[in-house]
Structure formats: structure tokens, C-alpha cells
Amino acid sequence: MATNIMEPVTIERTSRPTVTSLQEVAETILADALQFAHDKFTQPMRAAGLEELMQRHDFIDYFKLGLAERIANTLAAHDEHVQAIYYFDPSLGSDAGTETYTALDPSINLLIRVKLKSAALSSFIAALDDALAREVRKLPSPYYGSLVTILNAILITEEDVEQGRGYAALLSSLYLKPRQVW
Fold it and tell me: In this structure, are residues 141 and 55 in contact, taking their beta carbons and an 8 Å threshold?
């Protein structure tokens, strides 16, 4: 009877894996979203300071869209069950851009269509929300200074969409059409 004896194998580590903390991810998301919003303006407005820009509704709207897109990319990269992510902003209803438009909701509202709702994804969303809230509180803005939470992430399934159940009904809304960001 022959025995198969394997010799020990030595594995050399040439580089260390990069581990990024969730707070670093939140910092990057915030910086990228601010840059995205800043780049939407013409050169004269770009010269304004962040404190002045953070007082403008149009800057905040672009900033929120930038946050939504970057958060969506982060969530989709983290969980394979994510099928699509939609951003919606109730403050951008029919009166947006008119004299009566005064409300500003700093929340990032996302509909996250998943194959399967999971506690792991919900936990990751909660942790990311906590990290993002810490970062946005540092901004020179009365809208973000006292936030405890910024992310309103709503998990929906294909069944919810097919039946038009709950927030999934927004996907077919005429009044408040969510924008697909992933």
C-alpha cells in the first residue's frame, strides 16, 4: 500500500491585504459626493466656499445624488443579493424650484431591490449609516449638524415590486419617480 506524503509548502507573502475601515469608506463617499456636486456648478460658483455652497438647495440636491450613487455602489459591492438601487427624494416633489419650495430633507432615501432580504445586509447598512452620519455632522451646514441618521434604506423584493406593495409601489409612481443609481 502506497502512501502519499506531501511535503510542506511555504507560502511567501509579498503584500499585505488592504483592509479599509467603514469610517474611511464613509469619508471617501462624502469627499467624492462633495466633489460631484461642486463639479456641477459653473466656474464662478466653484470659487465659493463649502459653507456658502452648503446653503444652496441646488448644491445640496447634487450632493445628495452624489451620496446616493456612491452609497449604492458600496452596497452593491458588499452584497451579491442586491439587484438594483433607486434613489428618491420626497422634497423634490412638484413644488421643487418654486417659491413654496422650502423643505429640505437631508436624508438619502434608497429603495434596494434584493433577491433575498438578509440580516447581514441590514447590519451593514446600519453600520454604514452610522459612519456616514458621523462624517456629515462635520459639514458646515445647519441641515447636517445634528443628524443621527442619514440613510433611509428600504429593502424590497421582486415580489414586492410585482405586487406594488409598500415602498415598491414608488417604482411605478407618476408623482415621485425614483431614479436608478445602481
Answer: yes
Q: Which three cell numbers stand for residue 139?
A: 459639514
Q: Is 114 helix (H, G, I), strand (E, B) or coil?
A: strand
Q: Please say whether the dihedral angle defined by the alpha carbons of residues 36, 37, 39 and 40, taken in this order, is positive or negative.
A: positive
- Identify which of 116, 167, 140 has the alpha carbon closest to the alpha carbon of residue 59: 140
* Nearest alpha-carbon partner for 105 in 62, 153, 78, 143: 143
pTM (predicted TM-score): 0.84
**Segment 48-63 mean pLDDT:** 92
Nearest Cα to 111, choosing from 160, 175, 162, 62?
Answer: 160
pLDDT over 80 (residue 82): yes
Whether 83 contacts 115, CB under 8 Å? yes
Rounded to whole angstroms, the Cα distance separating 15 from 69 reads 31
C-alpha cell at 98: 418654486
Question: For 136-182, what is each residue's pLDDT tens digit?
Answer: 999 998 889 889 999 999 999 999 999 999 999 999 998 888 999 99
